[in-house]
Structures are given as C-alpha cells and as structure tokens.
Amino acid sequence: MHRRQFLTSAAIVATLLAVAPAFADDSAKSVIEAYLAAWNAHDSAKAAGYFAEDVTYYDASVGTPVKGKEAAKTGVIDNFLKAVPDAVWTMKGAPVIEGDRASFEWEFSGTNTGPWADGTAATGKKFSFTGASMFSLKDGKIATQSDYYDALGFYKQLGLM
C-alpha cells in the first residue's frame, strides 16, 4: 500500500516538474504580449506598468542604457508615442521563450507627426522598419529590454539622413 502511494506521489511530482517550465514560458509570453498591446493602445502608463522599478532599457542605436521605470517610460515609450501617435508595433511570428528570457522579431510603423524628445521636429513622413527585442523578466516584470533595429533605414525614411 505504501509503495502505491509513493509511486503515485512520485508520478505527480514528476508531472509538476515537467510542466513547471511551461508555466514560466506562458507567463513570460503573456507579459510580453500584454506589453505590446499596451504600446499599440498608446497607453504609456500601462506599458510602463510591465517594467520592474529598476528596469534597464537598451536601444542599440542610442548606445546608452536608460535605467529605471519612470526614465524608460518618459525617455522611450512617451517619446515614441508622442512623435508617432499612430504607432503600430507588430510581433513577427511567435516569441522565443526560454525560462525568464524572451525575444521576438518585430515591425514598427507609423507617421512622424509629433516632435521627438531631443527637439527634432516632426517630418510628417510614414515609416516602417524591422528589428528584434530581447527581454529578461523577474517576478513577472520586464527587468531588461534590448532593442536592435535598422536605425539608418529608419532615419532615411524620416528624411533625417
């Protein structure tokens, strides 16, 4: 009798251990998808709500990381959504998830009808460019985000180069 209970318990534990990474993957995927949805709803406060307080946001074209939730909200999300009020950020395919890390290819498009935070005037030009983002999550929040994209192509479409 004890052997049967032990085997049943062991089978349950083995099943839970096998399924646990899938729960982590689903959580990372749902956070990333909700974060993208908030961007596309043009809700910077909601998008920033997915950041950890000490988030590090790295844009490879800028080169200097932005640190902290409020700095990432105002310096990145607000900047893009004010300069491109019709912004659309589209995930290309499914994200690649491994534990607390996620990445995906994307397309970002819109029309630059507002000024950029650095003082660059709106160009009124439409654009579309592709890139990729890498994320790490901690406790259900985005701890790091690194974006890699064709900045030269983006600037050329805006007529800035």
Describe the protein.
The chain is α+β, with helices and mostly antiparallel strands. The protein is 42% helix and 34% strand. The chain contains 4 helices and 6 strands. A 6-stranded mixed sheet has the order 2-1-6-5-4-3. Strand 3 (88-98) and strand 4 form a beta hairpin.
H/I helix tally: 4
User: How are the strands of the largest sheet arranged?
Assistant: 2-1-6-5-4-3
- Return the string of H and E elements: HHEEHEEEEH
Helical content stands at 40-55%
Question: Main sheet, how many strands, which sense, barrel?
Answer: 6 strands, mixed
Cα distance spanning the termini? 78 Å
Low-confidence sequence ranges: 6-25
Average pLDDT taken over every residue: 88
Broad structural category: alpha+beta
Approximately what portion of the residues adopt beta-strand conformation?
A: 25-35%
Oligomer: single chain
Radius of gyration: 20 Å
**Shape from CA axes?**
globular
Count of β-strands:
6
Helix and strand topology:
Layout: H1 2-40, H2 44-48, E1 51-59, E2 66-67, H3 69-83, E3 88-98, E4 101-111, E5 126-138, E6 141-149, H4 151-158
Parallel strand pairs: 1-6
Antiparallel strand pairs: 1-2, 3-4, 4-5, 5-6
Summarize the structure.
The protein is an alpha+beta fold and 161 residues long. The chain has four helices and six strands, in the order ααββαββββα.
